[in-house]
Design brief:
The protein has one domain: Response regulator (Rossmann fold). It has a 5-stranded parallel beta sheet, sandwiched between helices. About 30% of the residues are buried. The protein is built from 5 helices and 5 strands. It is of the alpha/beta class. α1 crosses α5 and α2 packs parallel to α3.
């Protein structure tokens, strides 16, 4: 079973993502801030991470920077969860290794499942 780590601080987003990904047959873990996210990445070694950019303790950018320095973590695909979808924000995320993104106000759960499937299969 493929493992998905969601690093997000808003419970409503977590619940939406988790529910859909569980239905699709993924093993889902949650971290509520960037520090917890990095700890979980090292422990769980997920197949993919859904990563919020604006979070307490460490931002998504900081998490991606640390992942990039770690040979084991740098291979894990990242899908960004963005509040704004501003091109400058998405470009920075792509430069740090993000493979895809979701805009919080616009995504539907099926889109999330499709993006995850595109990156890691089922």
């Amino acid at each position: 079973m493929k493992k998905v780590l969601i690093v997000e601080d808003e419970d409503i987003i977590i619940d939406l993502l988790k529910k859909k990904l569980l239905q699709e047959g993924y093993d889902v873990s949650i971290a509520h801030d960037g520090e917890e996210g990095l700890k979980s990445l090292r422990e769980i070694k997920p197949d993919i991470v859904l990563l919020d950019i604006v979070m307490p303790k460490k931002s998504g950018y900081e998490v991606m920077e640390e992942m990039g320095k770690d040979p084991e973590l740098s291979k894990i695909p990242i899908i960004i969860i963005s509040n704004s979808g501003q091109p400058v924000e998405l470009d920075k995320a792509k430069d740090l290794g993000a493979k895809d993104w979701l805009i919080k106000t616009e995504f539907d759960p099926q889109e999330v499942a499709d993006k995850v499937k595109k990156q890691i299969g089922q």
